[in-house]
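Before a computer can learn anything about folding, someone has to put a protein's shape into writing. The three-dimensional part falls to structure tokens, numbers that each stand for a local backbone shape. The protein below has been through that process, and both of its lines are reproduced in full.
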Amino acid sequence: MTAPATPAPLFLSEWTIPTSPAEAEFPFWVKPRVAAGWIHDAWRIVRRSTFIYALGWIHVHDGEGSTGGLLYASGRPKPGYWAFRNG
């Protein structure tokens, strides 16, 4: 009989939260402060979960129809930037 396989840790990638009604990729959006709260909550789950290795974000900044960046198109940080950075 063989020993059970050790599960591989998860890398949760391409995570994003749209923050404007101008969002083209997803049919929903939330206010930037709400997104920051969701990001904070996600990091709490990641830290408590032994089976999650990392949390990756897909868009660094807004642009090309995406409003889920951690930075506005101008480069100014959104509230979610600080929540992600301080994760």
Remarks:
- Residues 32-48 form the longest helix (17 residues).
